[in-house]
Amino acid sequence: MVLWGLMLGILLVATVGYLCLLGLFRQRRPQEPPLDKGSVPWLGHAIAFRKNMFEFLKQMRTKHGDVFTVQLGGQYFTFVMDPLSFGPILKDAQRKLDFVKYAEKLVLKVFGYDVVPGDHRMIHSASAKYLMGDGLKDLNETMLDSLSLVILGPMSQSPDASCWHEDGLFHFCYNALFKAGYLSLFGRTKNKEQDLLQAEELFAQFLKFDRLFPRFVYSLLGPCEWLEVGRLQRLFHKMLSAQHNLEKDGVSNWIAYMLQFLREHGVAPAMQDKFNFMILWVSQGNTGPASFWALLFLLKHPEAMRALREEAARVLGEARLDAGRSCNFKVSALHHSPALDSVMEETLRLKAAPTLLRVVNGDQILKMASGEKYQLRNGDTVALFPYLSVHMDPEIHPDPTAFKYDRFLNPDGSRKVNFYKAGKKIHHYTMPWGSGMSICPGRFLALSELKLFVLLMITHFDLELVDPDTPVPPVDPQRWGFGTTHPSHDVRFRYRLRPPV
């Protein structure tokens, strides 16, 4: 026993020593960006980065400028902060900066899904076919029906529906959009009440996984949390089994197309279940939080709420509950609502904060818009954080921390697309969906879901904050870099159904 203990101790010391040497031996080469390894061997700046990514990158940019390399847990990330220099990174046709390699490792770790060759292209192909054009129109109709079921219940309007109901705004929005999205994509049975109960249970478990997700990605969970993640993964694989989907009606063409591809390529049913788990998270992990911020901004800015309700009245008429007690308006109105478009774009500018990552394949040169050239090292990761470098740039977006519902409208009410930095028109003036190879293939569906939900809430419901003076909560710092941010705490609100016409 003593001998084994001694051997394990020697092995531990050797391992720690090796990891430390990896960090100690790395030196900046000619033409490489400034290198900041931090004071802790191997870990580098990992702790400060995870504590508050936004503040950490602000400090690094102040210290090093628009390009710098930092050590994070034995890996080296080169952050590019000049949006005028994003083009070569995002339009890398030769795949010298590879997004797919990073994504494959991530989905295997988080969802247990082992990528099939070609399925990245398959997902984009399926999304172009079923999440745009007529395919999206059909899915929007289904989504509106599902939102009616989730918000009004299986029996539609209850006798006391005109009374005020109180809830946490974040919980209400996340709950409603998650359940409606799940039912719209993965189908229903003939038992509406049972469907809602299953969706509610799924959402409760999804929240548990979502709270652990940021630290799970960075391998910072405690022993009990690792066990909990394993339990949740197994639960989702069971609840989202491909076999279970076959027993439902109305499974979306998008899901059916992708599962058919996997079956044709000999993917085992157990791996199809893991694929479904991945699709659930990527399709429903951001829309609920985004709708929370949108409604909160509208409640805090009466002029914005007034503008949207006036636009809705022009486009929809006085929409109310129809005789069947379901939410009713033409989804085609989504294409004729520039004020709503601007509100959503402004909300995402303020609260969507993804990180775009590319693995460097072979040493290569990055040419900046300024003309400077930097050597990128094979195996490192190039990272963009548009929230700081674009969304919060006062030159691109004056008074960037303020919510301005008409920021993306021209004086004539049309959509504004011309933004400038250093006197040059900038193409990437917001990047909530990523860009290039890593752009979200489901962005049109996600945006439609958000707009449908917001339109439904402002046309069919009266809404108010329990405390009108409550401030907009700060962002939970753990959520920087993971899509739409979450609030540090919920906000109480009241809602009541407007009476039918």
From TrEMBL:
One of its GO terms (cellular component) is endoplasmic reticulum membrane. It comes from the Eukaryota. The keyword Ribonucleoprotein does not apply. One of its GO terms (molecular function) is iron ion binding. It is found in: Endoplasmic reticulum membrane. Its cofactor is heme. It is a single-pass membrane protein. Keywords: Endoplasmic reticulum, Heme, Iron, Lipid biosynthesis, Lipid metabolism, Membrane, Metal-binding, Transmembrane, Transmembrane helix. The chain crosses the membrane at residues 6-25. SUPFAM superfamilies: Cytochrome P450. Substrate binds at K109, N286. Heme binds at C440. GO terms for biological process: lipid metabolic process. The keyword Transmembrane helix applies. InterPro entries: Cyt_P450, Cyt_P450_CYP7A1-type, Cyt_P450_E_grp-IV, Cyt_P450_sf. Belongs to the cytochrome P450 family. This is 5-beta-cholestane-3-alpha,7-alpha-diol 12-alpha-hydroxylase. It comes from Pteropus vampyrus (Large flying fox).
